[in-house]
Specification:
CATH superfamily of the largest domain: Aldehyde Dehydrogenase, Chain A, domain 1
Number of domains: 2
Bound molecules: NADP nicotinamide-adenine-dinucleotide phosphate
Mean pLDDT: 97
CATH class of the largest domain: Alpha Beta
Amino acid sequence: MSIALSPALVSHLPTGLLVGGHWGPATGGRTFEVVDPATEEVLFDVADASPEDARRALAAAHDAAPAWRATAPRERGELLRGVYERIVARADDIAALITAECGKTRAEARAEVLYGADFFRWYAEEAVRFPGLHRRAPAGANRQLVQRRPVGPALLITPWNFPIAMATRKIGPALAAGCTVVVKPAQLAPLTTMLVAEVLRSELEDRGLPAGVVNIVPTSRAGDATSPLLTDPRLRKLSFTGSTGVGRSLLAQAAGQVLNVSMELGGNAPFVVMADADLDAAVEGAMVAKLRNSGQSCVAANRFLVHDSLAREFARRLAERFEALRLGPGADDGVDLGPLIDSAAVDKVDELVGDASGRGAQVLTGGERLGRKGYFYRPTVLAGVDPDARVSREEIFGPVAPVLAFADDDEAIALANDTEHGLAAYAYTTSLDRAMRLGDELEAGMIGINRGMVSDASAPFGGVKQSGLGREGGEAGIEEYLETVYVAL
Ligand code: NAP
């Protein structure tokens, strides 16, 4: 067990299933292991939910739904505010848990805790703000009442790469809207999400609110456990964050009962550096856009498209910055970059680098594993990359920056949009005209102009094309958990 975790945290950390307000074992006492990616050591054994356990969790969410939707919006808001305060008060402890199961550095993990908590603060404020409409029909014969209702019990499936923020971005708006939830956290990093569920459970209990509002079912059998829920009429909403491939398969299953769905899927973000860009600012932005969570972010810059006149110098400076980074366990002092999540992630990154070099790319720095225990890969810069290399076409999910050159603005935009994905895009330019054109023409749901970071609880996060459906965060996020009902009076 990692010595970075405080004894108080370890002794109170839930490792079971939360169903109807009670933590308990999975059917048959089955468990799975959660491993520290920096040491390859087992951290905890976690209850492994069966399909029957998932059904029990849905039943609890369904039973709690009438009482929860009847609570005053202000009460729901105050619950979320209370949870926000508790999480912020425990930020260091929760950050240590993220570092242990996910590998992030302490600083990054703490930033994620505050970002994640912010969804509760934001939706505490939104819970009392969603509008309706009351007006006379144009023909004058009757009145129209348009109201928003909670859609109903929701299944929330989350990935491992931001184990608090990906969960709170769904739970916050769902609860604010009046929906009860079943959360299916990722197998590789379920513990932080489970700790958040415990904070919610205890806040609900302290306020005398229904116990089954939040349920959580970690499992090593994702498809088996969740498939029966997707055909159960008690489920009314599916919100998924993860890869485009799994998203497609869940969409197909959700079609069976025309489930209300939200999909936050994979990305292949272009990072465009125009001929007139401020190169210092672009390199600084590239460090953030590429290396957050060691490149394991859906909005990570995947391809660096740089004007011919700057490409060589940009790649050289980026390689210099990458080389100066200290790679190691996220819990250690002075570490800039942690490990990848597992050995499969390291193998994939290494394969992509191999494919790119085989097609003529130059490895300016990195390009290899770190020779020690843990899933480490050296931060890598590739120059002269072929647009058809796998590293240009697939989501890398690792600390590898491929640099591709372009000749003019039209080519930059064409290359940037030459992907099935459309989550984030970044562009550096000092021209307002160019910035406006990029804002209009880049096919992405989120565009950072002269910024390497777009995430904010108050802004709509989500993708176009095959990067997803719907938005999380901002005013838009709560809409995903509401449906419109019109009454003619
Ligand atoms: P993933 O393999 O698609 O898994 C995501 C979640 O879905 C996990 O909880 C996983 O469970 C579960 N899952 C897998 N197969 C399933 C099935 N057949 N039925 C039901 N659930 C299933 O993705 P990941 O590797 O965890 O996360 C990385 C991906 O997420 C990347 O593509 C990244 O871009 C994307 N992502 C997108 C956003 C966004 O906002 N757009 C944010 C973060 C990440 P197990 O853990 O048990 O496999």
